[in-house]
């Protein structure tokens, strides 16, 4: 018998939990306005003058909505690339069933104990199992490098100009989900705002998915908004928690802004970005925990991914349940405050598309503990003896958990 919380709950267990009646009083933040939701900034001098019951705001330069991102010098995290020989050694060690990193035994107990727990505020109802669409299409199979049978993707669709992509496995399996229940309240849409060529402050059209892992900590993919790093221009990242119809289900005041970031990205295993938020939205909406992926969970259809892929809708959330992890490969190491951590490429059969980058790949480790094992990065194609394998890929491993724990200590 597995100890409670050491393994992801099965679909049958989630169905039983979903049938339970929630007797807590509804404490969701309907109509709440965050302190910085309607913040404004100016690069000039600002003054406020009261005339009767009115206040006049004057600025010597244009006034724009938002909170600017202030990237620090160490915002671009250091990565350590694996050599082909090191990757081959790690692959062989996994095949032999050993937990080993570059000649050092990695204790299984340490891997299993590395975790950050989730938080659900009392009065926020839970959705253990969102409605699942029946898969469509015909399944295709190939042979993996180790000789086993693997399910191959049905389609990999690229748009004509190549800017957007879509990967669907064995028919569409993502369903629209109005995120009024936990943990979907903690999934956020991210929008980039910046000055255009005319000097107008606009939504640039660039967006991604992110999710809360602390009271004011958000996690997304490291490649999100990568053209804007380290003060390359004046810009802001708007965060819309529980987004539906391009605003929070809890009202237009439930938005916040990214104030600073730290990211890594040299491969899909370490495609990670931490963001500190201007407001403590996780206190009222809840946040995810994090776990190190264990290869014992391979092929279990227990994982969920939720986000804003463009081919479903960039304005409303979609989610997919019953995802399986098909393989895990070593990723490049990341360095955080002088410590080096291993990362893992978590290959899975989640449907995905542009805009889903930064989505949580998670399961339930107990009744109040949804934990991510990966941050969605994109898709990759592996070449095997039996044909190409196309998989979705998420960034995970020790590095994922360690940066979450660090951010909770340092930024929360």
Automatic annotation (TrEMBL):
InterPro entries xrefs: Glutamyl_endopeptidase (IPR050966), Peptidase_S1_PA (IPR009003), Peptidase_S1_PA_chymotrypsin (IPR043504)
Entry coiled-coil feature ranges: none
Keywords in alphabetical order: Signal
Protein name: Serine protease
Organism (species): Rhizobium leguminosarum
Phylogenetic placement of the source organism: Bacteria, Pseudomonadati, Pseudomonadota, Alphaproteobacteria, Hyphomicrobiales
């Amino acid at each position: 018998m597995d100890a409670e919380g050491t393994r992801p709950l099965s679909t049958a267990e989630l169905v039983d939990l979903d049938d339970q009646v929630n007797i807590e009083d509804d404490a969701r933040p309907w109509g709440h306005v965050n302190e910085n939701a309607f913040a404004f900034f100016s690069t000039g001098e600002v003054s406020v003058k009261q005339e009767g019951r009115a206040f006049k705001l004057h600025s010597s330069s244009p006034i724009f909505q938002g909170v600017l991102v202030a990237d620090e010098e160490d915002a671009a995290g250091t990565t350590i690339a694996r050599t082909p020989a090191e990757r081959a050694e790690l692959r062989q060690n996994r095949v032999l069933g050993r937990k080993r990193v570059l000649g050092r035994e990695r204790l299984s107990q340490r891997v299993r104990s590395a975790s950050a727990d989730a938080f659900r505020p009392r009065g926020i109802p839970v959705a253990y199992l969102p409605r699942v669409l029946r898969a469509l299409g015909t399944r295709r199979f190939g042979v993996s490098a180790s000789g086993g049978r693997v399910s191959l993707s049905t389609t990999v669709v690229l748009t004509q100009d190549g800017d957007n992509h879509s990967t669907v496995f064995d028919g569409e399996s993502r369903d629209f989900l109005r995120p009024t229940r936990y943990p979907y309240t903690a999934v956020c849409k991210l929008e980039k705002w910046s000055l255009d060529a005319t000097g107008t402050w606009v939504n640039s059209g660039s967006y991604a998915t992110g999710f809360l892992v602390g009271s004011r900590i958000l996690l997304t993919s490291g490649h999100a908004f990568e053209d804007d790093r380290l003060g390359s221009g004046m810009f802001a990242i708007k965060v819309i928690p529980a987004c539906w119809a391009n605003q929070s289900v809890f009202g237009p005041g439930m938005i916040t802004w990214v104030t600073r970031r730290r990211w890594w990205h040299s491969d899909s295993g370490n495609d990670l970005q931490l963001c500190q938020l201007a407001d403590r939205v996780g206190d009222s909406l809840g946040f995810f925990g994090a776990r190190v992926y264990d290869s014992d969970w391979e092929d279990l259809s227990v994982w969920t991914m939720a986000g804003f892929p463009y081919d479903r809708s960039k304005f409303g959330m979609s989610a997919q349940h019953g995802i399986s992890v098909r393989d895990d490969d070593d990723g490049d190491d990341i360095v955080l405050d002088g410590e080096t951590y291993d990362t893992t490429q978590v290959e899975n059969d989640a449907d995905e598309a542009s805009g889903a980058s930064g989505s949580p790949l998670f399961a339930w480790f107990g009744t109040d503990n949804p934990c991510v094992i990966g941050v969605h990065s994109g898709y990759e194609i592996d070449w095997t003896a039996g044909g190409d394998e196309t998989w979705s890929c998420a960034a995970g491993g020790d590095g994922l958990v360690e940066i979450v724990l660090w951010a909770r200590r340092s930024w929360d």
